[in-house]
Design a protein that fits this description.
seven-stranded antiparallel β-sheet, 14 strands, alpha+beta, single chain, 8 helices, about 425 residues, about 40% helix, Jelly Rolls
Length: about 425
């Protein structure tokens, strides 16, 4: 009887202390404290600090929860406002573009016009700009999450300061985007104004990307030289990376890499190799609604890759000059093969190897519609055909996995331009 009366007294005391403070707090949690079996729980609670201290703790917790709710609501409101404005601008831009095409009979480039051997896509500058801004914001937020994870694993005042500074930069970017969106809404001044706004936006984004890249370099010294990825957040004609080393003359090759992209239509050009007199000596490209293709000396083979699902995929292509035999592997499994792809044509030396852009001239002539959008890592080239077992070891991150004997993935071999960024990456940690 005494034990039951004590239990009821404790329950009433808890209800009185919580009172209205438990209202509007959403889901609740019970906080338990270890008490000896033969002890009086009410007495133990009072001895631990008394009713006043308990009430103070409850009120403090309630205040913390309310502050967090206000912060979350504020962030949601900002996101909704930005999304609404982007949607309105994109819709308006589409309507303006449709009206313009009705007046001029359409603006699609005719086949064969211009110097671009890979074609072009019709697009509205304002709508494309807004779409790219959304992709950039998402990319920067992902990088912030990576930085926060690194900070948790490597707790120090330096990493915490780095995280806070990166968050500040992203906040600045969101404010600038909102400002640009308002300008686009109010302007609607035609192609010239669209071009001017696009230049301003890209300049601001490039500047922020460069500053964030400088922050991220602080993590570089703590990782091996091959544990990094390249990020191309925008479909532009100025973001790319260049491999410092050229290719030798090759009568066979295997090229492998990790890719992650959700771009549409087409992920773009993961890499291109141009030599004097032939811009399409060796190119991997997925452009428009076409399947991914491998080009050797301007000869084309269609590949069975499906990789634009926003997940990491490992791909390999092998080729030999004898009969032009090729094989394609995705995630360690052969998915296609063929022959008569540039047979008896050796890959020429002394060229320029670019990641993220398709070259129309030696080392340049980039077209934004063919640019790669996404992330790329562990790009390796061998001067021979790898066996299926060797390809499988690469795709499964086996300790037996080989590095390229012609091009090996290393930070010291890569130069980046135009706001493309490097970030810590380990394939096995991403896929396991």
């Amino acid at each position: 009887m005494l034990a039951g009366r004590a239990a009821r007294t404790c329950a009433l005391l808890a209800l009185c202390l919580l009172g209205s403070g438990a209202q509007d707090l959403g889901p609740t949690r019970f906080i338990c404290t270890s008490v000896p079996v033969d002890a009086d729980m009410c007495a133990a609670s009072v001895a631990a600090g008394g009713a006043e201290e308990l009430r103070s703790n409850v009120l403090q917790l309630r205040e913390t929860v309310l502050q967090q709710k206000e912060t979350i609501l504020s962030q949601k409101e900002t996101i909704r406002e930005l999304t609404t404005k982007l949607g309105r601008c994109e819709s308006q831009s589409t309507l303006d573009a449709s009206a313009g095409e009705a007046r001029t009979g359409g603006g699609r480039k005719q086949p064969g016009s211009g110097k671009n051997t890979m074609g072009d896509l019709s697009r509205t500058p304002a709508a494309e700009t807004l779409s790219q801004l959304g992709q950039t914001l998402q990319s920067l937020k992902t990088r912030l999450e990576n930085l926060e994870q690194y900070s948790r694993l490597n707790s120090s005042s330096q990493t915490n300061s780095l995280k806070d500074l990166l968050q500040s930069k992203i906040d600045d970017l969101e404010r600038q985007v909102l400002s640009r969106v308002n300008t686009l809404e109010e302007g609607k001044g035609g192609p010239r104004n669209d071009t001017e706004e696009r230049v301003k936006i890209e300049s601001a984004l490039t500047s922020l990307h460069q500053r964030i890249s400088e922050l991220e370099k602080g993590q570089k010294d703590n990782r091996p030289g091959d544990k990094f990825q390249l990020t191309f957040p925008l479909r532009t004609n100025y973001m790319y990376a260049k491999v410092k080393k050229s290719l030798p003359e090759m009568y066979a090759f295997t090229v492998c890499m990790w890719l992650k992209s959700s771009a549409a239509p087409g992920v773009g050009t993961p890499f291109s190799y141009a030599v004097p007199g032939q811009a399409n000596e060796l190119v991997l490209i997925e452009w428009g609604n076409n399947p991914m293709e491998i080009l050797i000396n301007d000869k084309v083979a269609k590949l069975p890759f499906v990789i634009n699902d926003g997940k990491w995929h490992h791909i390999c292509i092998t080729w030999t000059t004898r009969d032009g035999v090729w094989e394609a592997y995705q995630d360690g499994t052969q998915g296609g093969n063929g022959e008569n792809l540039a047979p008896y044509h050796p890959i020429k030396p002394q060229g320029v190897l670019v990641l993220g852009q398709e070259q129309d001239t030696l080392g340049g002539g980039f077209d934004a519609t063919q640019a790669f959008v996404g992330e790329l890592a562990h790009f390796n080239i061998w001067d021979r055909k790898l066996t299926p077992g060797e390809v499988y070891n690469l795709a499964t991150c086996s300790t037996k996995a080989l590095s390229g004997n012609v091009i090996a993935w290393s930070e010291s071999h890569i130069e980046i331009y135009g706001g493309a960024t490097k970030w810590t990456f380990e394939a096995c940690r991403q896929i396991n």
